[in-house]
Amino acid sequence: MDKQLKSGGAFGLKFSRTIIYIICILLSLLSILPFWIMFVNATRSTAEIQSGLSLLPSTHFMNNLQVLLDKSFDPIQGFMNSFVISGSATILTVYFSSLAAYGLVTYDWKLRKPFFTFIMCVMMIPSQASAIGFYQFMYKLGWTNSFLPLILPAIAAPAVVFFMRQYLLATLSLEIVEASRVDGSSEFKTFNRIILPLMMPAVATQAIFAFVANWNNLFMPLILLTQKEKYTMPIMVSLLRGDIYKTEFGSIYMGLALTALPLFVVYFLLSRYIIAGVALGGVKE
């Protein structure tokens, strides 16, 4: 009887595990499908795209690329501009947000809770609500047609500060900080040498989100940048549409595919840190 119960339980466990695997595979396929369709459409002509959906690549890849380059589309310049803005903004976002979260967790000062409440209130304000005032301020500073107003505001990222604070509350032991202070380590040295490596899974996660958000940002660069040589990839892709009589959809999908490629690279480079963090968090002493 006991053997039958054990065999039945083992069968039920295997069956439930199989169902979970099947669901995960289906969800993965659904997540990949839009990107696959985008890359497939980059190889199809406008007539083929308008005729209907296809999951098989066509033979118009080089033609779409040629049309893309004929429209004064400079992917190298666009990549460089987008990478400078996105890379710099991502570094500022994750570092200063981690530093702010470290201060909120380790220091016990009178206005700590009101300051955190203020950060939460700022997080609820959409960036579009302050776009006009921000543009007027940048215009008075002479920073229009500059990358600085697209990079420096990344220092203040309330949502990232909130995420980093929650991560530190769950993982950081204050005894480590106190031990480093006893050993004579400065606060910045403690943060850079001890705390920041411990936060690497959270940093990698937010770096992915920050890079994707800055890379895909179209609203503020379209307002601030008017010189063609400073256009980012999303601006260049948005300008690919032709007149009302003819639009080369194949070249548009080609531009979208080129724009999405760096996002895959960044994700695969940083995903190992996320996986390592999840595995580390699953080990309890």
From TrEMBL:
<feature type="transmembrane region" description="Helical">
    <location>
        <begin position="194"/>
        <end position="215"/>
    </location>
</feature>
<keyword id="KW-0813">Transport</keyword>
<dbReference type="Pfam" id="PF00528">
    <property type="entry name" value="BPD_transp_1"/>
</dbReference>
<keyword id="KW-1003">Cell membrane</keyword>
<feature type="domain" description="ABC transmembrane type-1">
    <location>
        <begin position="79"/>
        <end position="270"/>
    </location>
</feature>
<protein>
    <submittedName>
        <fullName>Carbohydrate ABC transporter permease</fullName>
    </submittedName>
</protein>
<feature type="transmembrane region" description="Helical">
    <location>
        <begin position="250"/>
        <end position="270"/>
    </location>
</feature>
<feature type="transmembrane region" description="Helical">
    <location>
        <begin position="83"/>
        <end position="105"/>
    </location>
</feature>
<feature type="transmembrane region" description="Helical">
    <location>
        <begin position="150"/>
        <end position="174"/>
    </location>
</feature>
<keyword id="KW-0472">Membrane</keyword>
<feature type="transmembrane region" description="Helical">
    <location>
        <begin position="20"/>
        <end position="39"/>
    </location>
</feature>
<dbReference type="InterPro" id="IPR000515">
    <property type="entry name" value="MetI-like"/>
</dbReference>
<keyword id="KW-0812">Transmembrane</keyword>
<comment type="similarity">
    <text>Belongs to the binding-protein-dependent transport system permease family.</text>
</comment>
<keyword id="KW-1133">Transmembrane helix</keyword>
<feature type="transmembrane region" description="Helical">
    <location>
        <begin position="117"/>
        <end position="138"/>
    </location>
</feature>
